[in-house]
Each structure stands twice: as C-alpha cells, then as structure tokens.
Amino acid sequence: MKYNGTNYITELKSIEYIVEKNSNSKVENHTQFTKLKKVERIILIGELYLNSVKMLKRDKIKVEYADPTKLNFSFKDDKVHIYSGEKDLPDIVLTKADSKNTVVLMRSGYTKEVTAALLDAIQELDILILNNQEAVAMSSDKYATACFLTKSELPQPKYVLATSGDIDKEDHKKLDEKLKQLYGKLDDELKYVCKILNGHGGKGVFCCRGKNIVSILQCLFKLKENCPILIQDFQEIKDGDIRAHVLTLNGKQKILSSIMRKKGKDFRTNLSLGCDMEDDYKMTPEQEKLALDAAKASGLEWCGVDMLPLQNGNTIIVELNGAPGPSSPINDPNIEENNCKFFEKLVEAINELCK
User: Fold this and answer.
1) The Cα angle at residue 11 between residues 16 and 115, in degrees rounded to 5
2) Residues 286-331: pLDDT tens digits?
3) Is the separation of the CB atoms in 343 and 49 below 8 Å?
4) pLDDT category of residue 45 using cuts at 50, 70 and 90
5) 212-222 pLDDT, tens digit each
6) Which of 68, 175, 176, 330 has a 20 to 30 Å separation from 109 between CA atoms?
7) DSSP assignment letter at 302
8) Residue 262 near residue 276, CB atoms below 8 Å
9) pLDDT over 80 (residue 24)
10) How much of the chain, in percent, has pLDDT values that exceed 90?
11) Is 282 left (phi over 0), alpha (psi -120 to 50) or beta?
12) What is the DSSP string of 36-102?
C-alpha cells in the first residue's frame, strides 16, 4: 500500500492530551528507549543541514536524504520504501533490522499528513527518530509548552493566553483581568512579551507597554481572529539567554553543548536574527540540573532548552525546542564545518547512551 497526503491521515493527539500525558508522572519517569547499538546510517528528512550531515561520511556513516516536499512511500511486510522521485536520489528502504544502526533526523514537515504517516511507519520498525511527533507537537506550541512547564513544576515567566474574545467593541475587561495575573496590577509602563503560538527563530515575538497592548492586539485579531497570543511578564536578563542541547535516551542523559546568546539592542537573542554567541558556555550546577530535568520531562530525545539567567540570580525556562539544530551564527563563514562538528558530537553522544 502506498500512502500520500490524500488517502492517509495521521491525527496527532490534541495538545491538551499531550500536555496531560507528559506531566502526569514524575520527571524521572519520562525517558525514551531505543534498540540502537551504534549509528552507522543517518536518514535526513529535510533540506536543512544537508551539507553538514553529508560531511559525516568521512566517519564511514552512510547518509541518505529524502525531500520532505516530495515524499511518497509504501509500508508493507515490515518494510518502509521511501520513493525519492529524483534521478540523482536513490530510494530509501528501511526494515526492523535497521533499528540497530539507523537514526532518522527529521528537520521539517511534522504537520504534513504524508510526513506524519511516514514517521508512524518508521516508528513501527523501532527505528530511532529525532524527535518523536507528540513531544515535538507540544514543544512547537508555546502555550502548550507553558502549560506543560507549569504541570512539571519547572520555573518560567508568568503567562496568560489572550484571544479575540478578550477584547470586544465595548471594552477589554477580560484582557485586563488576565493581564493583572502577570504583575498584580495594570500600568501603562509595564512591559509585556507577546508571542504567536507556533513561531520560531524569534519571529512572531514582540515586546510592548501596557499603554499599547490593547491597540496592538486589536490590530492582530482584526487581521486574524483565530490567532491566540501568549503574553508573559517581562524578565530582565543578565547577559543573554542560554541554549542547552540535551540528549535523553535509555534512561540516561548527556548535555551536548551549551551556548550563551548575548543580548543586544533587540530583547530577542535568536542567532537567526544575527545575535552574537559565547560558545561552550559554562552553566552552573543548578542550570545544568534545570536543563536535564526539563529535557527529560519533555519526552524529546534531543531537546533544545532555552533558559534565562535573570538579574536577580535565578534562572527560568523560556522555551523547549523539538527541532533545535546546531547552534551557529548565520554569519559564520565556517558554518557547515562547525555544524558538522556538532553532528559528530550528537552521534558520539547517541552511541555513548546506547551502550
């Protein structure tokens, strides 16, 4: 049987279910197990980082690529056959035997029906996928992530969810009541961090004052009524934010790397926006524990944990990233080589945790 987006639909469970599932039990119970023994083959689904992953061939790792925009596959007799549709790209065949040496890196397209169906089929073969769909669905929704962090008792900014129903033609009393939850009061000069729920790379994130927030939200809801906005209290960070890459497999964990993305004129510190970074940033023991706990609780095998070291000395979590990728500035002239070194670390860590 051949699957495609028109005759096969995989319905991801609701965000509410995912949050509930991932936070019902204690943090230490959330861990992923794999039959993988050693990484000898990587299947990359997604154009991002293709050249960097290809460089791993020098370590005798076979790399195969599938274009997520042209996916078509069949699943029969415990065999997944991915049709490339390109002359220069061979088809990919996966069986249960590949669970011992193969990793699938999924870089885009989780919400596409054919891709979701493909990942389901690959999981049926017990092949390790970085990352699993449910955990990615949770981390891709900023409100779901915030709810999850609350249930897992992990520190984060205060937050509320604003919808078009909170503002009508007559007044905005419902919004005012929500905003009071953040600071305990209303004030024109208070700062609010506002985020669309599915943005990434700092896009769809802005900061505004209390005197402007109503008019801005009215404008957004006029453009798109069904567009909830996550609103957080503004936290003054010390030097920048921390991105920690954490791998969780077989009940064991390893921090692959940690960087500090330095704050600049823009309150957003995303590398994709051109911010500078401090590589090999030394976290405190408390920050390391926070990163490990958040990653383990999330259900993400490879988790990017974003933390804010605050002026008051505390550290809070601001985001969990289910498709983090290596951390390199966009203007890095050696970006592919440096990204390849990151993937080498990733492979080494996978092998270490699978022993």
Assistant:
1) 120
2) 999 999 999 998 889 999 999 999 988 899 999 999 888 887 666 6
3) yes
4) confident
5) 999 999 999 98
6) 330
7) E
8) yes
9) no
10) 45
11) beta
12) --S--EEEEESSTTHHHHHGGGGGT-EEEEE-GGG--EEEETTEEEE----TTS--EEEEGGGGGTE
Token code pair at residue 329: 């500035």
pLDDT band at 7 (very low <50, low <70, confident <90, very high): very low
Give the pLDDT score at 264.
Answer: 59
**What pLDDT was estimated at residue 201?**
66
Q: Is the preceding omega at residue 334 within 30 degrees of 0, hence cis?
A: no
Cβ–Cβ under 8 Å, residues 154 and 29: no
What does DSSP assign to residue 14? P
How many C-alpha atoms does 282 have within 13 Å on its Cβ side? 0
For the record, the structure tokens of 115 come out as: 């891709």
b/e code 101-138 from CB counts within 10 Å (16+ = b): bbbbbbbebbeebbbbbbbebbeebebbbbbbbbbbbb
Report how far residue 350's alpha carbon sits from residue 37's, in angstroms, rounded to the nearest whole number: 9
pLDDT score of 333: 73
Please check whether residue 137 is in contact with residue 110, taking contact to mean a CB–CB distance below 8 angstroms: yes
Q: Which of 333, 337, 329 is nearest to 272 (CA)?
A: 329
Structure tokens at 126: 């017990």
> And the tokens for 197?
């729920």
- Separation in Å, CA 295 to CA 17, 21, 145, 273: 19, 15, 12, 25
Q: Which of 349, 326, 348 is nearest to 339 (CA)?
A: 326
- pLDDT at residue 108 is higher than 70: no
Cα–Cα distance list, 259 to 243, 315, 324 (Å): 5, 15, 13
